[in-house]
Amino acid sequence: MAVCVRKIGTQLPLSEIAFFRSIIPTLIVSLLIFSRRQAFFPKPRKPLLLRGLLGTGGLLCFFHATQHLPLSVSGILVWCTPLVTYITARVVLKETLTLQTLGWLVLAIIGLQLIFVPVWQQDHSAQGALRDFKLIDFAIGLLGTLFAGLVFVTIRSASASHNNNSIVLSFSLAAAIITGAMMLFDYQRPSLDLLLLLILMGIAGTLAQIALTEAYRNAPAALVSSMSLMQAPFTISLGVIFFSEILSAYHVVGVIVMGIGVVFASISHSRLRL
To answer: How far is residue 93's CA from residue 217's CA, in Å, rounded to a whole number?
Structure first.
């Protein structure tokens, strides 16, 4: 999905990209629900409504952050997501993680930080990055992190009474409606190549969303949100393959450290459940 966004990100408005990111999973998951004769929005509907609104809010905030913040600064917001998720899950769901698992998660976040070091060095000095964005833009990005933490908790809470497809649909439909309304003001007709990339992006996003939702149904929210940070090294690897990007020593070390942290955090938690 990230590869597709990278290719089309400068050619289409973000609202249009977000709409296709939302409408394609809406169509796919709706067909799945219909074919299995499941209820689209079973009662109680409040968790589904919260999932849709919080997810859409987080999507819009992170798209805004991506557009208005330096990559190095928006990366900091990504690092905050597992911490916010852990706090919200601890307060709302009373979830606990062992100190050993938390230690591995911290190692994973350190690995992610190493990945972003070259960005600070090449694109923005720390001082320059602070000058290049407005506080309100950072606040919106931080709000997106809070939304993300609440979304993970909402998914875990809703999983007790709702199937995976309904939870996914509640988000994608809400996001499609809201971003579709926004797209009306700056719509650009995509070429055939861009349209194919938009469809591929939507399919990849759908598979990822279904997989992550299923993961949140079966594991602590803080653990799964930390595992989702592996998107960074995977994206970097795809950048090497598709865009001939060159990895620095920080990238290589960061990917290794993050991989070790995520894998052993998962193993540690699995042993606890056994």
So the answer is: 13
Mean pLDDT of 49-59: 87
Q: Give the largest Cα separation in the chain, rounded.
A: 56
Distance between CA atoms of residues 26 and 191, nearest Å: 22
More confident: 183 or 242: 183
Q: Which two tokens stand for residue 101?
A: 């698992």
Total residue length of the chain: 274
Listed residue (268, 86, 56, 82) closest to 182, CA to CA: 56
The answer to whether residues 207 and 29 touch, using CB atoms and an 8 Å cutoff, is: no
| Whether 166 contacts 33, CB under 8 Å | yes
Cα–Cα dist 45/269, whole Å: 31
- CA 117 from chain centre, in angstroms, equals 21
Distance CA 4, CA 12 (A): 12
- State how far the Cα of 264 lies from the Cα of 270, in Å rounded to an integer: 10
Predicted pLDDT of residue 4: 79
Q: What separation, in Å, do the N-terminal and C-terminal C-alpha atoms of the chain show?
A: 34
For residues 225, 140, 126, 149, the Cα torsion angle rounded to the nearest 10 degrees is -10
Evaluate if pTM is beyond 0.70. no
Q: Which 3-state string (H, E, C) describes 137-200? A: HHHHHHHHHHHHHHHHHHHHHHCCCCCHHHHHHHHHHHHHHHHHHHHCCCCCCCCHHHHHHHHH
